[in-house]
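for the writeup, i need someone to sanity check this before i put it in the appendix. the sequnce is what the collaborator sent (i think, or maybe the updated version? ugh). structure was predicted straight from it, no edits. if anything looks off just tell me and ill rerun, i have time this weekend
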Amino acid sequence: MRKSVYEYDNQQSSRALWYHDHAIGLTRLNIYAGLAGLYLIHDWHEQSLNLPSGKYEIPLLLQDRSFREDGSSAYPE
């Protein structure tokens, strides 16, 4: 199995960024299936605020879904 590590030199202020694939014709289905993620960028100003960090920092990515009574995804046709 091949493993790749990617690094991005983000020169932005503190923020949470989300990412997802851009497969032609499949993006909406993949997003709906939950194939998305996030990463955090920290800067000196945020670090000066004494906010929770390390094991106390909990990143969240919220997504809205609809389900049928049987628990399957109810994706609009």
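Residues 14 and 46 are 7 Å apart (CA to CA). DSSP finds two helices and two strands in the chain.
thx in advance!!
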